[in-house]
Each structure stands twice: as structure tokens, then as C-alpha cells.
Amino acid sequence: MRRKLVAGNWKMHGALARNQALLSVVAGRMAQMPGVDCAVCVPFPYLAQTQHLLRDSAVQWGAQDVHQQAEGAYTGEVAASMLCDFGCRYVLVGHSERRSLYGESSQLVAEKFAAAQKAGLLPILCIGETLSQRESGATEVVVAEQLDAVIKLLGARSLRDAVLAYEPVWAIGTGKTASPAQAQAVHAFIRQRVAGLDADVAQGLRILYGGSVKAANAAELFAVPDIDGGLIGGASLVADEFLAICNAGQN
Ligand code: 13P
Questions:
Q1: Substitution site in 126, 127, 172, 245 for ligand 1 pocket (most atoms within 8 Å of beta carbon)
Q2: Which of 212, 238, 241, 245 has the most ligand 1 atoms within 8 A of CB, as the residue to mutate?
Q3: 225 CA to middle of ligand 1, Å?
Q4: Exposed (0-12), middle (13-18) or buried (19+): which is 72, by Cβ within 10 Å?
Q5: Nearest protein Cα to ligand 1, atom 2
Q6: Known catalytic residue: 52?
Q7: Residues 60, 89: contact at Cβ < 8 Å?
Q8: Global pTM?
Q9: Candidates 97, 111, 129, 167; catalytic one
């Protein structure tokens, strides 16, 4: 049985005092939830604070983006080795906000995935379709293209040391969640596609669902066979909400 992972994506939210309050509560309560993995992906400037507060806790942490090169003259960018310096275990790559607002292509996302793995991080590869793509029946084509870019660059075995997150763009921050059946259909499609290349990797692969996950809908989403946890935006900023979602993910 795959162990579930609930990861918070704080996006561009946070402040020292607020982070301290949130992380102390989450770290304290996660000590009583041995049946689920929990992580927070925080903005770069808060990695040191997060490392300090979570170092001896059951909660892991990560970043929300990484540069594809190991180092160099890339003003404003952050390398994977720097994330390792601050104890990150995870890094998001290809979040739909990066793809749509910053023009990140699937090829670039695959290169970021590679850079993260090379440094020893576990990339959380985010994939998902827009509303118009879903309405035109292109969901599987879009998700496959986003996934295949990584498989083409690094092979299916690279997914052994990674996590996938299916986040339908129309469900992000909108309050519109995919129904458990809608999400399950895409998650099963993703797993079957990987299984066609490597059955063992597919069996062990954690595929998170993201998009308006809340305490009120987490349990029904986590109950379907191919959802292995959640990637949580807004609700990860509220300790009680986030912890209730983590609790719903306990095996
Ligand atoms: P919301 O949970 O706020 O819809 O955001 C989802 C998301 O984008 C997580 O990466």
C-alpha cells in the first residue's frame, strides 16, 4: 500500500511571525499522525526558518521551483544544491502557475526535474489541463504530453524517485474541486501510462491530487484507489484545515 503524502504549497504567502505560529502547530500535531507523510513547500526566503522550526519534526519541507542549471550567471534564480543546503526534501516543478504565468514548457520542466533529482531532491511534478482543454476532450493528451517530457528525457525509472501531482487548472483556487470520480479517472490514466513502461514504478508511484482540497472534501478524494494524497494551496495556510486534511490521509 502506498503511503499517502499531504504537501502544502504556500505559493507567495507567508511572514515570519505567521509562519512560526503555523509551523509550530503543524509540527506539534503531526507527531501524533504516524500514518501519513506531511510536507510544506514554502517561499525561498523562509527555507531557513522552516528548517529551523521543522528540523526535529515529522514534517518535511521543500521549495516551489528550482533552476535547471546547477549554477551560473542566472540572476534571481535558485539552484537545487541551495535547496539541499536548507534541508529540502521536495521541490515542486511545473506548477500550472509557473507554466501559464512564466511560460515554462514541458521540456523546461523536465530539465528542472532532472536538476532536482541530480541534487538528491524528490521533484513533485505538477501536471493538469485547463478548463477549455477539458471541455474540448483533451485532458488525457495534455497530461500525457506533460508527463512524457520527463519520461523522454530521463526514462520511466526516474519516476521512482519522484511524486506526481495532478492539478486540474480549473480547480486551483476556484473552490471547484474535481469529483473523486473525475480525479480517479485521470490518476488511473497516468498510472496506466507509466505501467505500460514500468509496472513496478507505476505501482509505487505516489500521485497527489491538487485543486481546492479542503478538510470537507479530502476524505472522499483520498478514498479512491489512485489518489495517494494531496497538494494543498489555500487550505495549507490554516493550521486546523491543513491538519484535518493530513488526518484524512492517514492509512
Ligand atoms: P488551492 O488548494 O488553493 O486550490 O491550490 C491548489 C494548488 O495549486 C496547489 O499547488
A1: 172
A2: 212
A3: 21
A4: exposed
A5: 233
A6: no
A7: yes
A8: 0.98
A9: 167
Alpha carbon of 236 to ligand 1 centroid (Å): 9
> Among this protein's residues, is 167 annotated catalytic?
yes
Query: Residue length, the chain?
Result: 251
All domains of the chain, ordered by start, with CATH? Answer: 6-10+18-238 (3.20.20.70)
Q: What is the pLDDT along the chain (251 residues), one digit of tens a residue?
A: 899 999 999 999 999 999 999 999 999 999 999 999 999 999 999 999 999 999 999 999 999 999 999 999 999 999 999 999 999 999 999 999 999 999 999 999 999 999 999 999 999 999 999 999 999 999 999 999 999 999 999 999 999 999 999 999 999 999 888 999 999 999 999 999 999 999 999 999 999 999 999 999 999 999 999 999 999 999 999 999 999 999 999 98
Query: Alpha-carbon distance 176 to 180, whole Å?
Result: 12
For 206-236, letters b (16+ CB in 10 Å) and e give bbbbbbbbbbebbeebbebebbbbbbbbbbb
